[in-house]
Each structure stands twice: as C-alpha cells, then as structure tokens.
Amino acid sequence: MRTFEELVSEAQTADVSGWDFSWLDGRATEQRPPWGYGRLLAQRLSTAHAALDVDTGGGEVIDEAPLLPPRMAATEAHLPNVARARHRLGPRSVDVVAADPEHLPFANGSFDLVSSRHPVRPQWSEITRVLVPGGTYFAQHVGPASAFELIEFFLGPQLENRRSRHPDTEVQDAEATGLALETLRTVRCRMEFYDIGAVVWILRKCPWWVPNFSVDDYRPQLQEIDARLRRGDPFVAHSTRHLIVARKPG
Predict the structure, then answer these.
(1) CB 145: neighbour CB atoms within 10 A?
(2) Rounded distance, CA 90 to CA 103, Å?
(3) CA–CA separation, 59 vs 38, rounded Å?
(4) In this prediction, what percent of the chain has a pLDDT beyond 90?
(5) CATH number for the domain including 8?
(6) A Pfam family in this protein (predicted)?
(7) pLDDT band for position 23 (50/70/90)?
(8) Which range marks the domain in which residue 140 is found?
(9) How many Cβ atoms from other residues are within 10 Å of residue 9's Cβ?
C-alpha cells in the first residue's frame, strides 16, 4: 500500500463533481438496496409523458434509462454538476435547469412523474405543485443516521441528528401536502473502506457529512484509520436508504 501522504494527496486532488462514485472502485464497497432504483426508474420513464428529475447531480441516473419521455427536465443547484449534467444529457434533449429544489421553475401540473435519487431535502409542496393530478413521485432517499459510524468517528456523538431524514417523518410531510403514499421500503447497507484515500475522497464528495472537513484539521483521526486499514481491518459503516412512491390524487 502506498504511504499515507501519497494516498491523501491523490484523494485531495481527485474530481468529486457529479454523482459518479467509480473513483472508489477497489478502494471501498457499498451494498446496494435490493429494489434496483435505476432499473425501476427506467421502467417508469419509458411510459411517462413528462418527467422531472430533482437534484440530478451530473445526470448519471437519468442517463442510464434507455428511453426517456417526450419531455424530460432535470434540476440541480450545484453549478459544477449543472455543467456536467448538461454535457451528459444535452444530446438526449434533456432540459437541465440550474435551480434550487425549494423553487422549481415550472408551472403547476407540469409533470406526470417527478423523481429523485438522494435529494438534499425533499420539498414536498413544490413536488406536489408541479405534479399533474394522478402524477407520481418516485424516489430513493437517504435515511436516518446514514454513514454515522464514519461521521461520528470525526465529530463525536450526533444524537440530535440521528432521526433526521426518518422515513416516517417524510411520509407525514408528504401527506401533509396532499400526496398519498403507495410504497415505502427501507434498507441498511454495509459500507467498507480499504484505504485512507477513499475516506478523504468521500468526505470531499459528501461535505455535509463532516462540515468544513480538511486533512490538516482531522489528521490524527485520519492517521488512526490509516493504521487500522494497514492492519487489514476495513473501516465499516452503514448507509440507510428508503424507496418512496407517492401519488397526487386525481
């Protein structure tokens, strides 16, 4: 294994734009939810008339679908991701809009399908507003206490945040805007990190995990993990996900 400094230096300069995690190949693993979100979304997109993907990242998930509806739009707030998504999805005539999910720039009843994989925070009133009567919200959300073994290693106990993103709360919020729940499935998936570069890279990729993360500020913790990994003991954490399908009454 390369030295601590070599691995960290490489991870600090690697690209973290979009939602492509292939940089972690061979460095980390994560179990996938059993339902296969990308496949299920592709099926729904193939029969939709007008669809919107919220918080699309670099457009990676939408681009996996073989067939897109006649009208396909996507929103993304992070400008580097907007450029990436436009480059990827432009040839497929997808309208990629730089927009915050709190204010979707579309008319009432614009879409029969709204989707999102790992939205920053679902804005239920806006989702409901842009759906046609009978339209569907189909999404995979990050659940409560996701990757907290890693987060709390750096930040200490986060007791007040452990129920954030709880699916029960999200269902209540969705129903409060008029959506009717059709499906809710939850899962806890094992994550393993094999080198310290993977840890640094994921903390750059997901900066909300450890806000204001820097190698200098957390060097002792990183060195402790590095020593553990060099003994052949992977750092284990668990992600939580839930699949949610809700319909706007017709």
Answers:
(1) 19
(2) 23
(3) 12
(4) 93
(5) 3.40.50.150
(6) Methyltransf_11
(7) very high
(8) 4-247
(9) 15
